[in-house]
Amino acid sequence: MTTALTRDQVLALAPDSASAKAAGGLLGDGQWPSLGVDGEALWGECKGSGARPYQTQVDLSALVTRCSCPSRKFPCKHALALLLMHAQGQPRLATPSEQPAWVGEWLASRRDKAAKKEQAAEQPPADPQKAAATAAKREAARWKRIEDGSAELQRWMADQFRHGLARFGEAQRKDGAAMAARMVDAQASGLAQRLGEALDALAGGRHEEAIERFGLLQLLIDGVARRDTLAPPRLADLRSALGWPHDRDEVLAGGEAITDHWLVLGQRVQSDDERLSERRIWLHGHDSGRHALLLDYAYQGRDWEGAWSNGCSYPATLHFYPGSVPLRAIAVEQGSGVAQAWPTIDADEAIDQASHALAGNPWLPAVPMLLAEATPLRQDEQWCLHTRAGTFPLRTDLANGWSLLAFSGGHPMQLMGEWDGRRLRVLAARASTGATWALETRA
User: Fold this and answer.
1) Where are the domains of the chain?
2) Is the pTM above the cut of 0.90?
3) Mean pLDDT per 10-residue interval, the chain, length 443 residues
4) Which of 66, 69, 355, 389 is the S-S candidate for 347 at Cβ 3.0 to 4.6 Å?
């Protein structure tokens, strides 16, 4: 990379407006004990709340960032500030300097990964017949474990209903947790997760929700028993719901491919484990009208694949995973992003779209929902969203709830979120003035 980005291009990389604002407060020279740049990278140490400064670095060839701070946003505010200083001609970044060891080690590890990937691609292919036979044997063994585990789960569920859900208590909760662990052993992590959600609903006194979740579990168990009769898209739904991942290379080779300009509607990063973070990015195709979900993971703060900014449209080809309602996709050939307005969808149309998606695949954990005019409210200690078509319960924490309400000022605005059939989690909002709001991710 021979030239620095402009300030606007740097800000377009920000995961949300809060990060961009925070980065602006880190541009003071005294905040950075060390700064440096060369033909490969940009780096600096930024003072934080701890005794040691955060080590921040940018691979200029790919615009990939890394920082030792605990933030799960990519780029974090320190990396954005470093890029802003470079774009604005910070004098200490005007001439090349020698890389510190921690920067060289990071760049070397990136080069090593790229070399290993190329080497793996050059390996001679295995005997296709032998590989197919091995894969079929492995798949049959896994189905057998899942079948045995799901049959055991069905018996356990029948016992709970026979004795009555009203008697659910701590002993039943522990028994249910042991059953969920059994599902993990049976290589059906999806069953374990859904059972945990049903148990949480029971423990919270949400009996109607618990019964619905048990019903979806029974539907999965029936699907396992009847898997040989299912059409390929429905079988793909079943595998995904069981937690059986699809092969990425197979998706790239045979998945439905759509080339379009893809608008980033909203995204969120979550972490249920200190070592592993998940990023969910919802896209909308300008010409195709399709929704898509990019789902990727970062282990121990490693880099995300690709930079996607809310409100920007990117030319790209998406390869969709199989299923009755294809949403998840893999992006390839991504181009540069430009700002673009959201499509306008009224509440009735948004509800119809979400209803058709969940009817097509009842095991979908969430579907995207765009609302043209909606107002957040706080009623009876609960967060909700008022629209012309009715009121939606919201899934939010207090901080994000109050932040969204303050942003709206009590006025209708455009909203985008994930609808799970019960509550809406707002990921992004746009006011009539053009101002934007994004979900603040917290560890």
Assistant:
1) 7-120, 135-241, 246-339, 347-438
2) no
3) 72 84 90 92 90 91 88 86 91 90 92 84 74 86 95 94 86 91 93 94 90 95 96 96 92 93 91 75 94 85 74 93 95 85 87 93 94 92 91 92 93 94 93 88 53
4) 389
